[in-house]
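Today's session is about reading a structure prediction critically. Students often jump straight to the picture, but the first step is always the sequence itself: look for stretches that repeat, for charged clusters, for runs of hydrophobic residues. Only then move on to the predicted structure, which in these notes is written as discrete structure tokens rather than atom positions. Here is the chain we will use throughout the hour.
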Amino acid sequence: MLLQLDEIVNSLSGKIILLGHSWGAVLATEYAGRNQSKLSGLVIMSTGLSDMHWKDEYNRELKDLGLENAEPEQIFLTPE
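Below is the predicted structure for this chain, in token form.
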């Protein structure tokens, strides 16, 4: 899936703003973490974070990383 997205992004000229909705938001976030230099922005809509379970887990992860007081634009979570 990410390889297909990368092919599309590479076929375009210049940096793009990537938008992902629902499961696409998860993919867009993963892609953005690996390819920040190709993007000028990322918009994610209706992700699993709208569920309280995921929100609590997300907040715990931010706390573990020392980012609990960070502004959203300061948070970049990428795979290890």
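Discussion point for the tutorial: Helices lie at 2-11, 23-34, 52-64.
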